[in-house]
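Q: what sequence does this backbone want?
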């Protein structure tokens, strides 16, 4: 039998081409071969099931509470305060630029772009209390020692470049070459993080925390880079990444050897400072109360139904707490996203299976991101998520979607006290 025609490997091709062992041109979101055949085209880089924390979460999910109070479980009492550390200066950028001549032109471009365009987003936040600078310090420190940090950092840089060079048009299947580069680095980051995630030690805790935080940012940034085909599936992936990041943070807090640097104490103190001041958000809380009333009327005829109801109620009560903290924090990114990490893993399954009330709670949470739109990777998420949820379940529960639709159309209720 003659051998098949030789070709260059496409390491980051779609799963359909890989299964047939044929060359893939790696166009996103649909390659030329799949487009010609009219078949689905999926890339494991952006699939929600591509989860570096899969085994870690399975073995540790019991330690992550699903109740509303768990939002602050990993934070000790504010007194005594953790030591504060000055914000990083330009001098901390030196490691990123060390030895650029050893890299190919594309990698050199990514390093330069991170240092000059992406880095200031972390270090020059418009919000006085923020945790992004702490993650940034850890990235600078570990990017040349740990491959998962290195690749996650380059993924963020490439996605930012891709967001500046979008597709040629709404009907075009051609995507920015920076997106292809980003997906390749994202795959490498996830695969190398998997090698350490189930056996984290004190020395590997901080770099794992840095790369998992960056991967969460990458997932958000895919929306702007043209790498999203299903925003709800992507949010399910983001929830997994946040829960994994929280688990690593807890390990670092529990093991004093992991605190040899100031990253974890700074993160802890930043979160404390951001969440201690709740503020009423009456319109948001009233909207969530309507959902809780609907959930309370669900059947408990079977054990599964009873568990589903409990998961939804816990997620709803946690959301009310989270929204009050968002109102009090006035635009702190990590506070806006904290709810994603504290809901029960079963709630995430409800998102994947398109459970109507789970999606409606998610649509109410995403309004929080309207108030952190000074951060590029979350811009546009509220409107697009609400639209996706409305298409899925809006006709079933139009009354429960009124507040989120009003917020995305007109908005502004948070800082007007309504």
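A:
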């Amino acid at each position: 039998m003659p051998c098949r025609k030789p070709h260059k490997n496409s390491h980051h091709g779609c799963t359909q081409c890989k299964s047939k062992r044929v060359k893939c041109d790696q166009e996103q979101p649909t390659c030329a071969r799949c487009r010609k055949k009219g078949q689905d085209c999926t890339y494991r880089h952006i699939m929600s099931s591509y989860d570096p924390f899969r085994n870690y979460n399975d073995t540790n999910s019991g330690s992550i509470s699903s109740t509303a109070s768990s939002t602050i479980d990993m934070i000790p009492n504010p007194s005594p305060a953790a030591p504060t550390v000055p914000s990083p200066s330009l001098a901390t950028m030196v490691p990123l630029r060390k030895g650029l001549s050893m890299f190919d032109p594309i990698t050199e471009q990514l390093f330069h772009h991170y240092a000059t365009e992406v880095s200031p987003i972390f270090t020059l936040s418009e919000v006085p209390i923020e945790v992004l600078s702490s993650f940034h310090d850890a990235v600078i420190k570990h990017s040349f020692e740990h491959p998962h940090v290195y690749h996650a950092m380059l993924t963020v840089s490439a996605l930012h470049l891709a967001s500046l060079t979008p597709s040629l048009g709404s009907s075009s299947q051609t995507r920015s070459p920076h997106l292809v580069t980003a997906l390749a680095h994202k795959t490498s980051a996830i695969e190398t993080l998997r090698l350490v995630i189930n056996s984290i030690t004190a020395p590997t805790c901080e770099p794992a925390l840095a790369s998992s935080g960056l991967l969460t940012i990458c997932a958000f940034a895919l929306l702007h880079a043209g790498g999203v085909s299903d925003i709800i599936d992507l949010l399910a992936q983001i929830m997994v990444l946040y829960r994994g990041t929280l688990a690593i943070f807890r390990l670092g807090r529990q093991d004093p050897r992991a605190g040899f640097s100031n990253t974890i104490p700074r993160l802890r103190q930043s979160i404390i400072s951001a969440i201690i001041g709740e503020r009423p958000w009456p319109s948001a809380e009233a909207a969530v109360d309507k959902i809780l009333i609907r959930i309370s009327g669900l059947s408990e005829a079977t054990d599964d139904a009873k568990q589903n109801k409990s998961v939804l109620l816990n997620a709803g009560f946690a959301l009310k707490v989270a929204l009050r903290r968002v109102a009090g924090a006035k635009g702190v990114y990590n506070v806006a996203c904290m709810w994603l990490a504290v809901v029960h893993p079963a709630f995430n399954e409800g998102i994947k299976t398109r459970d109507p009330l789970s999606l409606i709670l998610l649509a109410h949470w995403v309004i929080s991101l309207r108030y952190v739109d000074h951060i590029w990777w979350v811009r546009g998420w509220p409107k697009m998520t609400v639209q996706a949820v409305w298409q899925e379940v809006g006709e079933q529960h139009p009354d429960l979607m009124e507040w989120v639709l009003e917020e995305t159309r007109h908005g502004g209720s948070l800082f007007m006290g309504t």
